[in-house]
């Protein structure tokens, strides 16, 4: 082979190898880091047509309204727990740390964390947007159509 | 009346832009010099009108004219005057008008400073810029006019500027970012004009390079300040979130970085021409894509402004026209482009080519991570998010070969090299890197994880390799002063840029590895320890600002029993809208930041507080400043000013 062809062959082999390696790596990293979004009712009752429920230990995102009166703070630490609701059952979120400025009861929030029990999520991040009128679009979609109806929840008869 | 004048000025500006688009391009096509010569005056005219219209918006904001919807939604009478001015770009409509101002100023600058260009090329560059101007002006006038009235029922008081945006960082962040975005439209126009002319030679690269460097410098500065703003304002000490809006600015930056490296090869060696053109087109297309992502409402993020599907559709169509048109032109013309230079495998050309590959791969990763959730959702497959670890992992992997290459590439010559002396040099450098990194890390920290060591070593490697190269280039001359003078400004730009990258890598690594945080509940008089610092909570006092009230937690910081500083971490409540804002207290230092955020009041006079200790976090923005400075000093290079001389031949 003449040097020119050799160079080209090398370039092609390097390109194929590089592309293959990076595509593989990317897909692997993607697979590890895709977090599905659930609403509280999807989390409990299953999501989509197949009613797929998340597995315990799975990382996920959950969005819903903070149930008024459900926020419980630990006296001595920064542990806090609250319940989220959309149209059906409630899900408990546990979190340690300072909640965002706009976290309020009755407001829509999104939490990211791990499912520890079928209806308990241990969050490592709680997001409330910096806007008074904000409702996460995913939550807004989930509660669409029930806009004028008061969500039916009752703290005493849980689920 | 006054807002209508502003609107009318924009209409006039658009008609001038339309002429700017048609006349020179038609003139260049038919060879009509008179038509081409109209371009500079049209460019100056539309610039004056757009700037005038922007001044009108500032004026009505300062006058608190709440009959104008934009002012009523983004300002209030109690807002300090400087924030009133910045509120003109705090919302969507005003931000687009600011974009337009930048676009017209860049166009005007190109018109004024391109006298040395042949008329055909100059006319085409300005014509393409005129076309882009028309697109954005049409958008402003049709979809997002900031001069719309709220008549007859207008509010007596405005809704105030979002408290998050009431920060000095926010005053300069958007203008800088837009300067960068829009500046890349100049590189784009040069590429398109060169394709139309059919002459892609090193002179074209030489003309395009200073504009690209300037745009890139602004973009770098904009991103740096955006990161600093997020850090100081969002109240939890993060500096990069891989948020779609941040990604939208990072993607053009990555491609623009590839572009300016590729341009240097095209200028000096006459190779990579078609690739360079493609990068110029891509960089600007990604700017438009970023605008689409931010403005169309398909994402949810801290940044997402008032959004509207119609606007998204307009930007998407504009994007399709620009990308489709330029790629079609590229496809028809690129076959005529030939590379003149020849080079061997171990040469600077190849290292720069590999650098480009890495940067493009990085861009693709960001693009994938940003668009996948959107596409997934639009296809009706449900909502997903891609976790931050994805980006972090991918960038960490890419950084390793990239940084190694970055250290050695400047030592290589064009065309070809002899390996043995280089290898000897690299072994010495590698040894020095390991020694310095070990000494540094083990003297500063108790535990050093292997990955932390590797990443820090990469930063050290870049730093000393660049320094060694600088020294060897200076020492071939008789004395230090002569040697330093002989180095071109482009070389200095490279040194600054690479050292800046070293700082950023070191900072990201060390901050990520050694930042510690503690959330505590404290009563007045209680203390908490974090690393070697002791924090004493002295209680909370009331505060009052021009348009907010609230509390400030007073904390005295001690180290080894001696007082270091007193911090006031504020929790503000803005009067209009009753929004709460955490204003973190930061004690900044070259080697560490102490960062304090006040949480909520708990029982019995206790408050929750979050304390962070962030080592080396400042280096990130220091690095960013160095990098952007690199973009600006090239502008002072005499080679790019005045009449273009014969391309200089670099020694082989």
UniProtKB/TrEMBL annotation, chain A:
One of its GO terms (molecular function) is heme binding. InterPro entries: CcmE, CcmE-like_sf, NA-bd_OB-fold. It is a single-pass type II membrane protein. One of its GO terms (biological process) is cytochrome complex assembly. One of its GO terms (cellular component) is plasma membrane. It is found in: Cell inner membrane; Cell membrane. Keywords: Cell inner membrane, Cell membrane, Cytochrome c-type biogenesis, Heme, Iron, Membrane, Metal-binding, Signal-anchor, Transmembrane, Transmembrane helix. Pfam families: CcmE (PF03100). Heme binds at residues 130, 134. Residues 30-159 are extracellular. Residues 1-8 are cytoplasmic. The keyword Metal-binding applies. Heme chaperone required for the biogenesis of c-type cytochromes. Transiently binds heme delivered by CcmC and transfers the heme to apo-cytochromes in a process facilitated by CcmF and CcmH. Belongs to the CcmE/CycJ family. PANTHER family: CYTOCHROME C-TYPE BIOGENESIS PROTEIN CCME HOMOLOG, MITOCHONDRIAL. NCBIfam families: PRK13165.1, PRK13254.1-1, PRK13254.1-3, PRK13254.1-5. This is Cytochrome c-type biogenesis protein CcmE. It comes from Pseudoalteromonas peptidolytica F12-50-A1.
From TrEMBL, chain B:
Keywords: Cell inner membrane, Cell membrane, Cytochrome c-type biogenesis, Membrane, Transmembrane, Transmembrane helix. It holds the Pfam family Cytochrom_C_asm. The keyword Transport does not apply. Residues 316-638 form the Cytochrome c-type biogenesis protein CcmF C-terminal domain. It is a multi-pass membrane protein. Residues 89-296 form the Cytochrome c assembly protein domain. One of its GO terms (cellular component) is plasma membrane. The keyword Membrane applies. Coiled coil: none annotated. NCBIfam families: nrfE, PRK10369.1. PANTHER family: CYTOCHROME C ASSEMBLY PROTEIN-RELATED, CYTOCHROME C-TYPE BIOGENESIS PROTEIN CCMF. This is Cytochrome c-type biogenesis protein CcmF. It comes from Pseudoalteromonas peptidolytica F12-50-A1.
């Amino acid at each position: 082979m003449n040097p020119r062809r050799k160079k080209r062959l090398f370039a092609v082999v390097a390109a194929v190898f590089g592309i293959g390696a990076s595509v593989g790596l990317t897909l692997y990293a993607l697979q590890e880091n895709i977090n599905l979004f659930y609403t509280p009712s999807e989390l409990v009752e299953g999501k989509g047509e197949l009613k797929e429920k998340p597995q315990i230990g799975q990382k996920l995102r959950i969005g819903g309204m903070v149930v008024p009166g459900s926020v419980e703070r630990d006296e001595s630490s920064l542990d806090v727990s609250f319940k989220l609701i959309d149209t059906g059952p409630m899900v408990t979120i546990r979190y340690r740390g300072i909640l965002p400025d706009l976290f309020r009861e009755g407001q829509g929030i999104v939490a990211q964390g791990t499912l520890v029990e079928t209806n308990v999520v241990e969050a490592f991040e709680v997001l409330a947007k910096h806007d008074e009128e904000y409702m996460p679009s995913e939550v807004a979609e989930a509660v669409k159509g029930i806009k004028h109806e008061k969500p039916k929840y009752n703290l005493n008869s849980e689920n | 009346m006054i807002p209508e004048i502003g609107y009318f000025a924009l209409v006039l500006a658009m008609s001038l832009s339309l002429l700017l688009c048609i006349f020179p391009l038609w003139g260049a096509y038919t060879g009509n010099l008179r038509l081409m010569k109209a371009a500079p005056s049209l460019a100056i005219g539309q610039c004056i009108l757009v700037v005038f219209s922007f001044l009108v918006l500032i004026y009505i904001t300062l006058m608190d004219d709440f009959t104008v919807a934009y002012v009523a939604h983004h300002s209030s009478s109690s807002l300090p005057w400087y924030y009133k001015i910045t509120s003109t770009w705090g919302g969507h409509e005003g931000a687009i008008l600011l974009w337009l101002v930048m676009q017209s100023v860049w166009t005007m600058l190109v018109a004024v400073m391109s006298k040395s260009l042949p008329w055909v090329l100059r006319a085409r560059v300005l014509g393409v810029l005129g076309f882009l101007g028309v697109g954005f002006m049409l958008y402003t006038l049709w979809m997002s006019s900031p001069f719309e009235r709220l008549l007859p029922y207008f509010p007596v008081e405005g809704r105030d500027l979002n408290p998050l945006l009431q920060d000095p960082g926010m005053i300069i962040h958007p203008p800088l970012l837009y300067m960068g975005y829009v500046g890349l439209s100049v590189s784009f126009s040069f590429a398109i004009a060169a394709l139309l002319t059919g002459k892609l030679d090193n002179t074209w690269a030489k003309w395009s390079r200073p504009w690209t460097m300037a745009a890139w410098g602004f973009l770098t500065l904009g991103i740096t300040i955006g990161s600093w703003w997020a850090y100081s304002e969002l109240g939890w000490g993060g500096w990069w979130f891989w948020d779609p809006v941040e990604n939208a600015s990072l993607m053009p930056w990555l491609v623009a970085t590839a572009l300016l490296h590729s341009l240097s090869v095209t200028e000096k060696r006459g190779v990579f021409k078609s690739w360079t053109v493609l990068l110029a087109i891509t960089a600007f297309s990604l700017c438009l894509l970023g605008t689409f992502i931010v403005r169309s409402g398909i994402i949810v993020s801290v940044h997402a402004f008032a959004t509207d599907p119609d606007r998204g559709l307009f930007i998407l169509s504009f994007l399709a026209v620009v990308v489709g048109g330029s790629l079609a032109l590229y496809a028809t013309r690129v076959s005529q482009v030939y590379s003149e230079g020849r080079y061997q495998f171990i040469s600077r050309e190849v290292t720069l080519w590999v650098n480009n590959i890495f940067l493009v791969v990085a861009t693709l990763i960001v693009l994938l991570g940003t668009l996948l959730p959107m596409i997934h959702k639009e296809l009706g497959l449900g909502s997903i998010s891609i976790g931050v670890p994805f980006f972090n992992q991918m960038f960490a992997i890419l950084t390793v070969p990239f940084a190694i290459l970055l250290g050695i590439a400047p030592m290589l010559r064009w065309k070809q090299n002899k390996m043995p002396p280089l290898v000897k040099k690299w072994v010495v450098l590698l040894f020095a890197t390991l020694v310095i990194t070990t000494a540094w890390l083990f003297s500063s920290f108790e535990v050093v994880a292997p990955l932390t060591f590797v990443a820090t070593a990469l930063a050290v490697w870049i730093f000393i390799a660049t320094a060694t190269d600088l020294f060897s280039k200076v020492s071939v001359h008789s004395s230090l002063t002569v040697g330093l003078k002989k180095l071109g400004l482009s070389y200095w730009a490279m040194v600054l840029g690479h050292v800046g990258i070293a700082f950023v890598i070191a900072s990201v690594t060390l901050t990520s590895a050694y930042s510690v945080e503690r959330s505590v509940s404290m009563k007045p008089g209680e203390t908490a320890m974090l690393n070697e610092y002791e924090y004493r909570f002295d209680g909370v006092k009331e505060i009052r600002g021009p348009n907010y009230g609230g509390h400030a937690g007073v904390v005295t910081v001690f180290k080894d029993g001696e007082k270091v500083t007193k911090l006031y971490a504020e929790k503000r409540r803005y009067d209009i809208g009753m929004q709460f804002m955490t204003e973190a207290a930061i004690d900044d230092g070259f080697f560490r930041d102490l960062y304090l955020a006040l949480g909520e009041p708990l029982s019995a006079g206790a408050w929750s507080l979050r304390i962070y200790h962030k080592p080396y976090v400042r280096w990130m923005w220091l690095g960013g400043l160095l990098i952007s400075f690199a973009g600006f000093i090239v502008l002072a290079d005499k080679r790019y000013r005045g009449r273009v001389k014969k391309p200089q031949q670099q020694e082989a």
